[in-house]
Specification:
The complex is a heterodimer. By secondary structure, chain A is an all-beta fold. Helices cover 0% and strands 44% of the residues of chain A. Chain A has strands spanning 9-13, 18-23, 32-38, 45-50, 55-56, 61-64, 70-75, 84-91, 107-112. Chain B has strands at residues 4-7, 10-13, 19-25, 31-37, 43-51, 54-57, 64-66, 76-78, 87-94, 104-105, 109-113. In chain B, strands 2, 4, 5, 6, 9, 10 and 11 form a seven-stranded mixed beta sheet that branches. In chain B, strands 1-3-8-7 form a four-stranded antiparallel beta sheet, with no helix packed on it. The radius of gyration of chain B is 13 Å and the shape is globular. Classes of the chains: A mainly beta, B mainly beta. The A-B interface holds A 32, 34, 36, 41-46, 49, 51, 87, 91, 93, 96-97, 99-106 and B 4, 33, 35, 40-45, 48, 50, 56, 58-59, 90, 92, 98-108.
């Protein structure tokens, strides 16, 4: 299974942009890049996903490198509520039973007022 | 729209006791799964189901049983609880189909085995 590498932790100031990196050098052509986050004492929640092109939604943007070996989750203006563990995950929807999401340890984002 | 509902939220068991963690979703999702999360760790997949009557093992299935008699429910059974099963358990569900399946998670069930 393709794996991802993320920094263990990052810090940000409130209302500043945050760039969370993820390396996935062994990604296959059909792997989607997913991002989930987990707020303290809550279940993970979906943030964004993409395949090849950059993606935007109301929560964040996902910038995918041209060779797809890395990606960056961008929070445009961090708030205190964005303090969470962010997981970068690869998933191939065509792998059927093997296409389950595999969570690593993620990046713990701290946001300072 | 309740999403994914897990009960109970907290449970304390003694070693050797059995119990069932309940998971229900009202989104007509075909795919459901159970994860466990230990302190400072990511989530590990226990069992999953791609539809009613179909279940399969994940990464850490030992000590747990599941069944899927309806689309809505996916209970997780601990047959003989052990201290190593002390963890937070999350249930998740999603549609199946072409493209990336987005998981919706429950709020979690915190289990302590003494």
């Amino acid at each position: 299974d393709a794996k991802t590498t993320q920094p263990n932790s990052m810090e940000s100031n409130e209302e500043e942009p945050v760039h969370l990196p993820c390396n996935h050098s062994t990604i296959s052509g059909t792997d989607y890049i997913h991002w989930y986050r987990q707020l303290p004492s809550q279940g993970p929640e979906y943030v964004i996903h993409g395949l090849t092109s950059n993606v935007n939604n109301r929560m964040a943007s996902l910038a995918i490198a041209e060779d797809r070996k890395s990606s960056t989750l961008i929070l445009h203006r961090a708030t205190l509520r964005d303090a969470a563990v962010y997981y970068c995950i690869l998933r191939d929807p065509n792998r059927g039973s093997q296409g389950n999401l595999i969570f690593g340890k993620g990046t713990k984002l701290s946001v300072k007022p | 729209n309740a999403g994914v509902t897990q009960t109970p939220k907290f449970q304390v068991l003694k070693t050797g006791q059995s119990m069932t963690l309940q998971c229900a979703q009202d989104m007509n999702h075909e795919y459901m799964s159970w994860y466990r999360q230990d302190p400072g760790m990511g989530l590990r997949l226990i069992h999953y189901s791609v539809g009613a009557g179909i279940t399969d093992q994940g990464e850490v299935p030992n000590g747990y049983n599941v069944s899927r008699s309806t689309t809505e429910d996916f209970p997780l059974r601990l047959l003989s609880a052990a201290p190593s099963q002390t963890s937070v358990y999350f249930c998740a569900s999603s549609y199946r189909g072409f493209g990336a399946n987005v998981l919706t998670f429950g709020a979690g069930s915190r289990l302590t085995v003494l």
